[in-house]
């Protein structure tokens, strides 16, 4: 009986949801050229908000000096490497 109830529900699903790869936001891609001018800026929550908005990234990853990170690639992520003075040293998509 339970099997008969699930058949009509399956027929209602007409569109497949977008599939994310490694948790990526479908349709989002980081654009690095729009944020190059932030190199040398002090790290802050406000800076993070600006970086996300201008780079079109869905994820922001702060990397303090000496921190090891994974090398997996995510097109929707902006990685911000910080120098010893807590200022943006490098910006990279992925």
Can you offer a commentary on this structure?
It is a single chain. Helices cover 23% and strands 18% of the residues. It has one domain: Trypsin Inhibitor V, subunit A (Trypsin Inhibitor V, Chain A, 2-Layer Sandwich), CATH 3.30.10.10. Residues 12-21 have low confidence and may be disordered. It has helices at residues 2-12, 45-55; strands at residues 59-63, 77-82, 88-93. The chain is globular. By secondary structure, the chain is α+β, with helices and mostly antiparallel strands. It contains two helices and three strands. 12% of the residues are buried. A hairpin with a 5-residue loop joins β2 and β3.
Distance between the termini: 49 Å
**Whole-number radius of gyration?**
19 Å
By DSSP, the count of extended strands is 3
Q: Give the SSE order as H and E letters.
A: HHEEE
Helices, by number, come to 2
Largest sheet: 3 strands, mixed
Form type: globular
Give me the CATH superfamily: Trypsin Inhibitor V, subunit A
Number of domains: 1
Task: Provide the CATH top-level class.
Answer: Alpha Beta
Strand content: 15-25%
- Low-pLDDT stretches are 12-21
Q: How helix-rich are the residues, as a percent range? A: 10-25%
Task: Give average pLDDT, whole number.
Answer: 80
Helices and strands: which structural class? alpha+beta
User: Looking across the biggest beta sheet, what order are the strands in?
Assistant: 1-2-3
CATH topology: Trypsin Inhibitor V, Chain A
In short:
With 94 residues, the protein is α+β, with helices and mostly antiparallel strands.
